[in-house]
Design goal:
alpha/beta, 11-stranded mixed β-sheet, 22% strand, 11 strands, Rossmann fold, 264 residues
């Protein structure tokens, strides 16, 4: 089947289920099964964009049940070469506050059992994840956030937990003691799968709460996450609408050459 071709993909997270005005919606089939929902296709700032809510349009998929391979491969089939992945996230550090954005540059994987590679053989392929987020896209995100007056941290490490449960206080304090800034349930393997397909990927972590290990705050709840994310959706959309037209058309970053020398 021939699909409309897009340049840029966006994955919607918790509380973020629409982006494109008057989109064309269509189903995509992949070798890895169906993605989380039909893809919404349209234009933003003259760029062709594919939007896919990773939890489904009605938030029916918890983090450990998302078909990450199908979602990312669907973007590849649509011709997408750059993906923006916003997430609702918790803060592990006092200076990273609810309502802040963090443009992450590293992740730590604490998930289990997720299908996290496209390369199951017979050719052994090792793709580097030393610097998993696109440096070019990150710079565009930071510049546009500054222009819009959005408080965005220039770097940060996101620790990705399995979910659907939130962390214990002991776990949260352990993560914070490592100096990691952000906690989330969906960044892995989404960002790494994009790298395996030589797709640029930029994370935008929208901080909705302080995690359970923070002193003097109530433990995180799903209701609070959705409330804060909803309050900041317009900021996120403004950033995406500014960022997408500014992304380069031609790429020569590490992401575009990720498979060079990776196969044995």
């Amino acid at each position: 089947m021939t699909y409309p071709q897009a340049e840029i993909g966006v994955f919607g997270g918790s509380g973020f289920y629409s982006l494109i005005e008057n989109p064309t919606e269509f189903k995509v089939n992949t070798p890895y099964g169906a993605p989380s929902s039909p893809v919404m296709y349209g234009e933003i700032g003259g760029r062709k964009v594919a939007f896919l809510p990773r939890h489904g349009k009605d938030h029916s998929l918890p983090p450990h049940k998302i078909n990450y391979r199908a979602n990312v491969y669907a973007m590849k089939q649509l011709g997408v070469s750059q993906i923006v992945g916003p997430n609702a996230c918790g803060s592990l550090q006092a200076d990273v506050k609810p309502g802040d954005f963090v443009i992450c540059d590293q992740f730590v994987d604490r998930t289990t059992g997720r299908a996290d590679t496209f390369y199951d053989g017979p050719i052994t392929t090792h793709v580097s994840s030393a610097d998993p987020y696109c440096p070019v896209m990150r710079q565009v995100a930071l510049e546009k956030a500054a222009e819009l007056g959005i408080r965005a941290h220039r770097s940060g490490t996101v620790v990705v937990i399995q979910g659907p449960r939130f962390s214990t206080r002991a776990e949260s304090k352990w993560f914070a003691s490592q100096g990691w800034e952000v906690i989330n349930m969906t960044q892995y393997p989404e960002c790494y799968l994009a790298r395996e397909l030589e797709i640029c990927y930029c994370n935008i972590s929208l901080i909705t709460d302080h995690d359970a290990g923070a002193e003097g705050v109530e433990p995180v709840s799903n209701e609070e996450v959705i409330r804060v994310f909803g309050e900041n959706n317009e900021k996120l959309k403004a950033l995406l609408y500014a960022m997408i037209p500014a992304l380069p058309i031609e790429r020569d970053c590490v992401c575009a050459h990720a498979l060079d020398g990776a196969a044995f």
